[in-house]
Description:
The structure holds two protein chains of two kinds.
Chain A: H1 3-9, E1 13-16, E2 26-29, H2 33-37, E3 44-48, H3 53-61, E4 66-69, H4 77-86, E5 89-92, H5 97-106
Helix pairs in contact in A: 3-4
Chain B: E1 5-12, H1 21-32, H2 37-58, E2 60-67, E3 71-78, H3 86-89, H4 99-102, H5 111-118, E4 121-127, E5 131-139
Antiparallel strand pairs in B: 1-2, 2-3, 3-5, 4-5
Helix pairs in contact in B: 1-2, 2-5
Amino acid sequence: MIVKDIIDILEGEIICEGDLNQEIKTACGSDMMSDVLAFVKDQSVLLTGLVNPQVVRTAEMMDMACIVFVRGKVPDESIIRLAEQRGITLIKTRFRMFTACGLLYSNGLSGGTKV
Amino acid sequence: MSNAIHLHYEVSGEDFTRAGEASGMVKKRLKSLGYNPDAIRRVAIAMYEAEINMVIHADGGFCDVDIYPDRVEILLSDHGPGIPDVDKAMQEGYSTAPDNVRSLGFGAGMGLPNIKKYSDEMRIETTIGVGTNLYLTIRVNP
């Protein structure tokens, strides 16, 4: 799956455009950034309902190419600028967390871990 | 060792939104030096969690980073309240962070466990009312 597929599946809207052809292998959905940081997987997408600059920094540390804000949440300018500087794609979707994760999962994206 | 690259960063305790700047800069530097991406990620995550801890609990501090060909050594030093029970603080899920920190996405009690997980050596020197020094070593392969 590539970033473009995620946008299609989640009927998402691009807020900040990075590399839309970047391959995505796994996903992680959480509002707790420490839980995200506990899970190291390459080429992941982060789904979150949290909107603050630490979401982008977390993605940066983890080499994540894409962040999806669920339930139509919109990040402010400072967050968008941070993502721009780091080449991270920001997407918003109207779907809620559970549904957004379910849609990606049923389209073949896994959590990357067995548990 | 003479071939170490030394970096120093002040971490502001006042602005939570800037927490992680130092870790981001170290990550960038390691990338430009051509270190292995997995190793860089471990350094970045361990240092980032520690930086967040400094801002949440200790009103900031400083980081000294020494980059060697085979390892990265990091000292994170603060003049915060100290850690009363280090063993407890090392348990996953144990947190003394205030609720407003949880609404920012941290304070889940995963900070120190994550730091330990991603570093090869970790040592905590802490004195109540004086502060905390956290020493980390992460082995890297160029």
